[in-house]
Amino acid sequence: MLDIVRLTMGVLLLSYASYTDWKSRKVDNKIWIIMGLCGVILIPLSDFDIWIFLPVITMTVIAFIIYILNMFGGADIKAIIAISILVPLWPELELIPYYSSIYFFPLVIFINSLILFLAIPFYYFIYNITKRNCEWPYCFLGYKMNAKKAKNKHVWPMETIQNGEYIKTILPAKNQKIEDFGNKMIWVTPKIPFIIPLLAGFIISFILGDILSLAWKLIT
């Protein structure tokens, strides 16, 4: 029963956070406070063990390292910590025969989310094939968009202007002003919030468990 409560609360809060992050690239801190408080309330109702705090400490350290390396945004870091408080231990839903992992459940959620996040380039590739824009390697990193339209979107250009010449870049050209391109079609890459794959990873982890371990079991 407690696992169902954790799953429901996690999905609802992460869904709302994903929506607001996609619309405005901002997430209210109250969401993570609510998620963390739910976890704190549920911990004493679980089979309490001092080791329940180890996953929380581990994920907090990982989140801190990610923050120092500037790999994800502040909301993503807070989400990782809040999730570890909400679901510090493996649930007992047993939705499929092979479910567990040697990793902490919050770490599995994070790893599964990363796998989904890294799968996004394949979506770009398929999309660009339909648009017949298959320039390598940009077709895996973003898509073409009119610069005037891109100015009002949450995207970074993958092109720069140097001495009047347009130069494509693999990394987002965060310092290049999109309006400088006028009405030109340029390559852009979306500012995808990590909370969206984190939501998907959260759900998948409850259903399939550790994706990497499951895939290894299936091929061996």
Task: Throw out a few tags for this protein.
single chain, 220 residues, mainly alpha, Four Helix Bundle (Hemerythrin (Met), subunit A), three-stranded antiparallel β-sheet, two-stranded antiparallel sheet, 54% helix, elongated
CATH architecture of the largest domain, by name, is: Up-down Bundle
Q: How far apart are the termini? A: 34 Å
Number of strands: 5
Largest sheet: number of strands, sense, barrel closure? 3 strands, antiparallel
How is this structure best described in words?
This protein is mainly alpha-helical and 220 residues long. It folds into two domains: 143 residues, Four Helix Bundle (Hemerythrin (Met), subunit A) (Up-down Bundle); 71 residues, no CATH class. The strands form two sheets. Strands 1-5-2 form a three-stranded antiparallel sheet. A two-stranded antiparallel sheet has the order 3-4. Helix 2 packs parallel to helix 4. The longest helix is centred in the first third of the chain and has 23 residues. The model has no long low-confidence stretch (mean pLDDT 85).
Summarize this, please?
The chain has 220 residues and is mainly alpha-helical.
SSE map:
Blueprint lengths: L1 H23 L4 H14 L10 H16 L5 H13 L18 H14 L1 H12 L11 E4 H4 L4 E3 L1 E4 L2 E4 L16 E6 L4 H14 L2 H9 L1
Antiparallel strand pairs: 1-5, 2-5, 3-4
